[in-house]
Amino acid sequence: MYLDRQEIIAQLQNIIDDYLKIQGLHLVDLIYRHEGRDLIIRILVDRPEGGITVGECAKLNIQISNLLDEKEILQTRYILEVASPGLDRPLKTKNDFLHCTNRRVRFFLNEPINGKIELEGLISKVENDSVYIESRSELIEIPLTKINKAKQVID
Hints:
Elements: H1 5-22, E1 26-35, E2 38-46, H2 54-71, E3 79-83, H3 94-99, E4 104-113, E5 116-127, E6 130-135, E7 138-143, E8 147-152
Parallel strand pairs: 2-3
Antiparallel strand pairs: 1-2, 4-5, 4-8, 5-6, 6-7
């Protein structure tokens, strides 16, 4: 049975996310792409409270590779990379923003808010489908749908 790219990615995400939850870990991102002749599957993993070691990533690489081989989703050779997302990882989901409450974040928007396409501020709260930041003693609401990219500001 042939699966298209999006179906394969969805299956990979489900299988890997379920496995990581059992381990008490969080799937931050899954990147599925071809680099030259190689199929690369890059998985960014973290603890809900943050902090995963290189040793844990190496162990997960073996475990997830075995799991994927057992499930036989991929009909081709692939290179699996399991890594920590790092402090400057892109923030994408509501949970990502919740983890950054009281931290400084830079937002790149796909449409202006207050006439600006780029905003920076301290996340004060995340409610419904919006992130609220304090910027220059002003509370600004940023709907998740308007966020193109966001990263924590590391001093």
